[in-house]
Design goal:
The complex is a heterodimer of chains A (237) and B (109). Chain A is 65% helix and 0% strand. Chain B is mainly α and 109 residues long. In chain B, 72% of the residues lie in helices and 4% in strands. In chain B, a hairpin with a 2-residue loop joins strand 1 and strand 2. The chains are: A mainly alpha (237), B mainly alpha (109).
């Protein structure tokens, strides 16, 4: 189950529901509700990897979960920020800053794609960003992560409950997210985003199916957008 | 394991396929769209911040499901140390190390 789905919370919920004798549609609906946040991750990564081939994007989608999303989003965002140091969106309009790495790479990524070159804005985003190939970077993150997830599920299944929780190693995960969070809080809007997302996620933590997280992140994002719209031009940052 | 094996496989298959569809929705769907809707474009810069904050906050502030903002909440204290370290170093390893060390120290004292 770990190998095919790679989604801890949904798997646990599905197993719990199976045990309670729930019907298949209920189990599937619950699991997919929990995983609804992946749609947001999917949207968020899309502009950063739209220059990659469809095959690469499918590879990226498969092990896309919280930690792989977090590391990839933080990295790609930082790279794109430093490349397009202007404009309101980080993938803005400063195409001149992009450096094509090599011809074969861009040729390959432009190859079998449809409907990208004829859409003005899209074509700009399809440029190959400088630096490491993002598909390989992502795999470098995802393979150890997903691999250790699958392996540790197996170890857990075999060894069971003989290992305690004495070392509190689970705290590693929130600390990792903290380390990624802090550098992104660099503007007034981002402060609003983080604050609202945190407050709502805590307030909604009682919701079933991990929906508190989804509600929190959507509220936070909305707060950031609202802050941007109401801001005095040039007043932020 | 008292469940019907076929039922388990149906659940695994359904969850796996459904989850992949959710994950691939935009990553692959972009080929059929004329780019992301403008509102999404505007929202994107804030998504990572919102995701991280929504993931972190409940893990620091909730103890057994209830809001606990006191010095007795070890994870909150360790998290605050982590925030300070992250702010000054912007270094993942330093942040995680400082946070874990603080947690262990508090629990050991």
């Amino acid at each position: 189950m770990s190998l095919f789905t790679i989604a801890g919370a949904a798997q646990l919920a599905a197993l719990g529901l199976l045990q309670e004798g729930a019907t298949i549609p209920v189990i599937l609906l619950a699991g997919l509700l929990i995983n609804l946040r992946y749609v947001v991750f999917s949207v968020s990564l899309t502009p950063h990897v739209s220059h990659l081939s469809r095959r690469w994007r499918a590879v990226i989608a498969y092990p896309l979960f919280d930690v792989t999303y977090a590391l990839a989003a933080a990295r790609f965002r930082e790279e794109d920020d430093s490349q397009t140091n202007q404009g309101e969106t980080r993938d803005g309009s400063s195409g001149s800053d992009h450096v094509s790495v090599d011809e074969t790479d861009s040729a390959r990524s432009d190859g079998p794609e449809t409907g990208q070159d004829d859409v003005g804005v899209r074509a700009e985003k399809a440029e190959v960003p400088a630096g490491v190939h993002r598909g390989w970077y992502y795999l470098g993150v995802a393979v150890p992560m997903a691999g250790s997830f699958v392996l540790s599920t197996l170890v857990g299944a075999l060894v069971g409950q003989t290992i305690g929780t004495g070392l509190h190693l689970d705290f590693f995960i929130p600390l990792l997210f903290l380390a990624l969070l802090v550098p992104t809080v660099e503007s007034r809007e981002a402060v609003a985003t983080a604050a609202i997302a945190a407050v709502v996620a805590v307030g909604a933590a009682g919701l079933p199916f991990n929906l508190g997280l989804l509600v929190g992140l959507v509220s936070g994002t909305a707060a950031g957008m609202l802050g941007e719209r109401t801001a005095v031009p040039g007043g932020s940052q | 394991m008292t469940f019907d094996a076929a039922m388990i496989w149906v659940v695994i298959l359904g969850l796996s396929v459904g989850t992949f569809v959710l994950r691939a929705s935009f990553l692959l769907g972009i080929d059929w769209l004329d780019g992301l809707p403008p509102a999404f474009e505007q929202a994107l810069p804030y998504v990572p911040t919102a995701v991280f904050a929504a993931l972190v906050a409940p893990r620091l502030l909730l103890v057994d499901g209830s809001l606990t903002i006191t010095p007795q909440n070890e994870r909150l204290v360790a998290g605050l140390v982590g925030i300070v370290v992250a702010w000054y170093t912007e270094n993942i390893i330093a942040t995680v190390t400082a946070g874990m060390a603080t947690l262990w120290l508090i629990l050991w004292l």
